[in-house]
Write a structure and sequence with these properties.
The protein has 5 helices and 8 strands. The strands form 2 sheets. Strands 1, 2, 3, 4, 7 and 8 form a 6-stranded mixed sheet that branches. A two-stranded antiparallel sheet has the order 5-6. The chain is α/β, with parallel strands linked by helices and 173 residues long. It has helices spanning 18-28, 52-55, 67-76, 93-100, 139-152, and strands at 7-11, 34-38, 79-87, 90-91, 106-113, 116-121, 127-134, 155-162.
């Protein structure tokens, strides 16, 4: 058997939410190499679109809050899974803030890959991203969005899963 994948779990639900606890238990059971962030206990501001992470301090966000720990952890793990509730058929604003703040992982420069414009990655790392959601989503849109998000960060989508089915998430590639 090959080396286990390392996992970063970013939980945007309450730490004691029973569904979140069960999801974390199911996900972390797949590897001994994991880190969990409970973002409800963290100070994380939304991206302000200043582009400092591209222009002034490449790879470093201008906003100084608890998010920096998450960004560093993302670089140290093979797979990042965000646990989110939903709003209007999509991940909620807390999870969207997390995703938007990943901008420093890419450069401002773009190139064409397979006929599509993509950001040039800042790191040679191949990221894997997944979403575990509580609530109702437009699954077709969610899968398409997650796929395109992952591609922009030189990564792959491992999929979006209802929280009740998070046991179906496979970290092995």
């Amino acid at each position: 058997m090959g080396e286990k994948m390392s996992l970063l779990i970013i939980n945007t639900l309450e730490k004691n939410d029973p569904l979140a606890k069960e999801a974390i238990r199911n996900l972390s059971a797949q590897t001994s190499l994991y880190t969990i962030f409970h973002t409800m206990e963290m100070k994380i501001a939304p991206c302000i679109g200043c582009n400092a992470c591209w222009l002034k301090t490449p790879g470093i966000c201008a906003i100084k809050d608890d998010y920096e720990k998450i960004l560093k952890a993302c670089l140290q793990h093979d797979t990042t899974i965000i646990i989110s509730d939903t709003s209007l058929g999509f991940i909620n604003y807390k999870a969207k803030n997390i995703v938007d703040r990943m901008l420093p992982l890419a450069t401002m420069y773009t190139h064409i890959i397979n006929g599509q414009m993509r950001h040039i990655p800042r790191y040679e790392k191949k990221f894997q991203f997944g979403i575990v959601y509580s609530g109702v989503v437009d699954m077709k849109y969610m899968e398409q969005w997650l796929e395109r998000f992952a591609l922009n960060f030189n990564g792959v989508s491992i999929g979006a899963f209802p929280i009740e089915k998070c046991g179906e998430v496979s970290l092995c590639t």
